[in-house]
Amino acid sequence: MDMPTTSLSMEQEFKLQVLREQVKSLSQDQAQEYLLEVMRQNMVKENLLKHWMKNM
């Protein structure tokens, strides 16, 4: 049975919890840089998926 695409696996939930604990110690500047980098990587991922879907 496939899980819904909006749900996280147990492994992903665990990784998220670890990340949640790690980011608590970041300064505001570090957190902003981190957020921007995550957003940049998400945009790259989106572009790759669009390119892949277009070339199927």
Average pLDDT reading: 93
Largest sheet data: none
What form results from the Cα inertia axes? flat
Order of helices and strands: HH
Strand content: under 5%
**What percentage of residues falls in helices of 4 or more residues?**
over 70%
- Report the total helices: 2
Describe the protein in words.
- Helix content is 73%, strand content 0%.
- It is flat and about 45 Å long.
- The chain contains two helices and no strands.
- It is mostly helical.
Summary keywords:
2 helices, mainly alpha, 56 residues
Layout of helices and strands, plus pairs?
Blueprint lengths: L9 H14 L4 H27 L2
Quick structural gist:
With 56 residues, this protein is an all-alpha fold.
